[in-house]
Amino acid sequence: SFLINNLGLMFIAGIIGNNWLAICSLPKQRSSIRTNEVLFINLAISNLITNYLVDLPDTIADFAGRWFLGETFCGVFRVCADLSETSSIFTTFFISAFWYQKLVGSLKRGGAPVQLDSLRLVGCLLAGSWTVAAVFSVPHFFFVEVEGGNGSEDDCLDVFPNAIAQQAYDITYLTVANALPLAGIVFASVQIVVTLSQNRRRIQSHGPDPKRQTLREESGTVESGSDDRPSCVASAPRFIFIFLFFFFGNFACLSVSTKPLLDHRDLVFVR
């Protein structure tokens, strides 16, 4: 069907894109690793977990028309779905905060130091995000069943003791692991785009200093296309493109990772 073919194409695109992201983010020298490289590598790892352990088995099950991978891998499948989704969202939030401090902070506060530009701090934040992701995802391994629902073929289903337990889990998970970091991502993204656009327009309205331009031309130091803009403002379009690319690309990946949860929402309650 069209849906299965579309999922197959997204799976292949995700494998290629996330492997490319991981390879390009690897430092050329071990001693020269930077904070943003660590964040992008972590994002690629989170998405590759989705690609290999969530999208691939789910696509195979869709082609087969039923879940045939057993109850043990059903638990692994559910764990990886929430683990990779939560880690991806938190990593995207950290990337948003990093570039917010680096770009907005440098423009508004005259080159203020970037607090997140610390490997130790980022390492602690990533360890904490994986811990939170594990807390929400590991219980799925023990509360799953493979059975047919409403006369359908075998399916991998979540099992909750009762409806109250399901509601409590859903509300907590959506608030802590989705709503809060997503709000931070949107805020940082909007602030970055607005701040860089405002500074770009302000610099363009002022134009280059004629005296400084004349001196540079006389000294022969002017290169084609150079200007007096700060480096972070001069490269604003590139930052905006990269930021929006990973922002929307990550959510496209998350939409695939949550697809099994939406498709198999016929939950079983143990009485």
From TrEMBL:
Family matches, as CDD domains: 7tm_classA_rhodopsin-like
Domain G-protein coupled receptors family 1 profile: 18-271
Molecular functions (GO terms): G protein-coupled receptor activity; peptide binding
GO annotation, biological process: cellular response to hormone stimulus
InterPro entries, per the entry: GPCR_Rhodpsn (IPR000276), GPCR_Rhodpsn_7TM (IPR017452)
Keywords in alphabetical order: Cell membrane, Membrane, Receptor, Transmembrane, Transmembrane helix
Any GO CC annotation of this UniProt entry: plasma membrane
Lipid bilayer topology: Multi-pass membrane protein
Pfam families reported in the protein's UniProt record: 7tm_1 (PF00001)
Region (Disordered): 203-231
Biased composition regions of type Basic and acidic residues, renumbered to the chain: 208-219
Compartments where located: Cell membrane
Transmembrane segments: 6-26, 38-56, 76-100, 121-143, 171-196, 239-257
UniProt name for this protein: G-protein coupled receptors family 1 profile domain-containing protein
Organism of this sequence: Salarias fasciatus
